[in-house]
Amino acid sequence: MPFIRSNEALVHEIHGVRFTSYVRPATGSRDLAAWRGEIPAGTVGPAHVISHEEAFYVLSGRLRFTIDGDVAELGAGDAAVAPAGAALAVANTTDEPAHMWVTTRVGLSAELADGSIITPPWAN
Question: What does pTM read for this prediction?
Answer without folding.
Answer: 0.94
